[in-house]
Amino acid sequence: MTSLTATTAGRAATGSRRLPRLSPYLFIAPFFAVFAAFGVYPLVYALRLSFTRWRGAGEATWVGVGNYVYLLTNPDFWASLGNSAVMWLLIVPVQVIAGLGAAVLLANARLRLRGLFRVAFIAPFVTPLVAMAQVWIVVFDEDYGLVNHVLGLVGLPAVSWLTSTAWAKPTLALLFLWKTTGFAIIILLAGLQAVPGAVYEAASIDGASRWRQFWSLTVPLVRRSIAFLVVVQTLAVFQMFAEPYVVTEGGPYGSTTTAGLYLYDHISASDLGTGAANSFLLVLLVFGLSLGAVRLLRPKEEVS
Amino acid sequence: MKQARPGPVQYVVLALLAVAFLYPIWWALSSSLKPAAEIITSPLSVGGPTLDNYRAMFADVPIGTGFVNTALVLAVKGAMTMVFCPLAGYAFAKYTFPGKNALFGVVMLTLMLPTLVLIIPLLLEMSALGWVNTYQALILPGSVDAFSIFWMRQVIAAIPDELLDAGRVDGASEFGVFARVVIPVIRPGLAALAVLTTMNIYNDFVWPVVAVNDTAHQTVQVVLSTLAQNVTGNRVGADFATVWGELLAAGSIAMLPLLVIFILLQRHFISGILAGSVKG
Q1: Which chain A residues touch B269 with a CB distance below 8 Å?
Q2: How far is CA B238 from the centre of its chain?
Q3: Most B CBs within 10 Å, among A19, A21, A31, A238, to test the B interface
Q4: Is any Cβ of chain B less than 8 angstroms from the Cβ of A250?
Q5: A62: which strand partners?
Q6: Interface membership of B137 toward A (CB under 8 Å)
Q7: A149: in domain
Q8: What is the DSSP string of B202-241?
């Protein structure tokens, strides 16, 4: 740490002689130009818009917090949050536990074919979501789909995977899990490999069983990776859009209208003021959830 | 003391997991090469191979145009990311200048901004500019992104200052030092950035589907989604099977380029994925 400050100080000294004063500003200018034009400007605009009623044409009328009140007292808004919350429950805990299990198996230094397994696990993460969402439509079709075909072969009744309110959410959650669990495994595996082997040696000498080692050593040490994963996936689940948009169009009976898709519905209905207000409510929610997750998963004593 | 040798149970569990991850991809690829009717009548068999589904799909949707558009967006937007993000990362890693911390704070804040919040205002901005259904609408927003800057800053911070000073002594300009000293040293990081950027731009869907609604500017992903909407409206007879065949053909052809890149460059992919979690 001290060497770092020393070198930056040295840099400033050499720098002033060679007049680099303008260069760093020029180097970061492209980001700020793009951010100002396509980040700050639309954000400020949206904030103003969220206090107006505007249907994409004509005069906008100022409605104060009307759009916010409308949303917060609208059962559909809460239903969309509820749908996303159920999705979160179906996805995040499953992914953390399964991902950790797979990562522990992969972390074993004496495992053969590790490269092959890793490729297999990440392949879904690379495929385009829209393409796989379409495969899901075909595979989980009630009448002609692969899954019900297989169920029929073993004498089980067909299931309305995408057309019943009970199954539509788990089926979409499965798509999300299939697509991103490889990502979770890679993140957790990197966390595990940062755990020094000496820690395990000490534990084995103490006679801790492998199960105990896992719970009292491994889990606390990869807490940071788990926290990162939970935050990233919470953000992703509450913004989930393409899966229901392509596969179920939010149905049946709105059961897969996630928070992200509900937001989009305002755009299709040209109800842009409400849409803007909905965006900000969603941002507040997502920030709150991420902060909560970070707090909850923060190590009690920082392990360095 | 060494870790225990993994037993057969561990191999079986990992193998089952691998099959679960790979089977849907394999099924889509192999079914797209079957006669359309067989996808419905015998979904488990491997038939064909025939290119009928691909012929029907190419005749039905402008996927060729989609690939051209995606390639164009990828080239320009990707190039902007690859030039401007390392450059900004270099400034934040190796210079001290007034306001640096505050400006870097802004970069980090935008990292946490959900993309969804910008969709509506961006769309309105595009229509105010007359940019709906244009390439610049697809390219410019998000072309210099905060995550890549943050990542490149981490990578460049690891370069010893002596190396940069040596370049300066040789009389290189500030940009010259970046181009001739920094860039060659961070080549592995740049490769990972290129691979991840390609994946993100290629798979991007939410913004393109909102910003573009004419077939001339649709990207591959948007063309795919229009095909999916045919399915829900069309559930009768032979047509139905044909649509499924087209759907699987389109999905397969859309996923192949990235799968090939991934298999060839998997090391860069993995370091790209991990870059984000370094400082969770």
Answers
A1: 122, 126
A2: 35
A3: A31
A4: no
A5: A52
A6: no
A7: yes
A8: HH--HHHHHH--STTT--HHHHHHHHHHHHHH--SHHHHH
Q: Do A129 and B259 touch (CB under 8 A)?
A: no
A21 domain residue, yes or no = no
> Which chain B residue is nearest to residue A37, measuring alpha carbons?
B141
Q: Identify the CATH number of the domain in which residue A205 sits.
A: 1.10.3720.10
Nearest CA to CA, how far is A78 from chain B (Å)?
A: 18
> Are A31 and B88 an interchain contact pair (Cβ–Cβ within 8 Å)?
yes
Q: Which of A21, A106, A112, A134 to mutate to test the interface with B (most CBs of B within 10 A)?
A: A134
Question: Rounded to whole angstroms, how far apart are CA atoms B113 and B109?
Answer: 7
Q: Each residue's pLDDT tens digit in chain A (304 positions)?
A: 334 444 444 444 444 444 557 889 999 999 999 999 998 998 898 888 899 988 777 778 888 889 999 999 999 999 999 999 999 999 999 999 999 999 988 888 788 888 889 889 999 999 999 999 989 988 998 888 899 999 999 989 888 899 898 999 999 999 999 999 999 998 898 888 777 766 666 666 666 677 777 777 777 778 888 888 888 898 889 889 889 988 888 878 888 999 989 988 888 888 888 988 998 998 888 888 878 877 877 765 544 4
DSSP H stretches of helix in A75-164: 75-107, 114-126, 129-139, 146-153
Range of the domain at A236: 67-297
Whether A302 is covered by a domain: the verdict is no
All domains of chain B in start order, with CATH: 62-233 (1.10.3720.10)
Contact A38 B122 (CB under 8 A): yes
Q: Is B10 on the interface with A (CB under 8 A)?
A: yes
Helix (H, G, I), strand (E, B) or coil at B233: helix
Cβ contact A45–B210 (<8 Å): no
How many domains would you assign to chain A? 1
Strand-pair partners of A52: A62
Query: What ipTM was estimated for this complex?
Result: 0.86
Put simply, the answer to whether A27 touches B143 (Cβ < 8 Å) is no
Q: How far apart are CA B241 and CA A296, in angstroms?
A: 50
Whether A38 is in a domain gets the answer: no
Query: What single-letter amino acid sits at A269?
Result: A
Residue B2 structure tokens: 């060494």
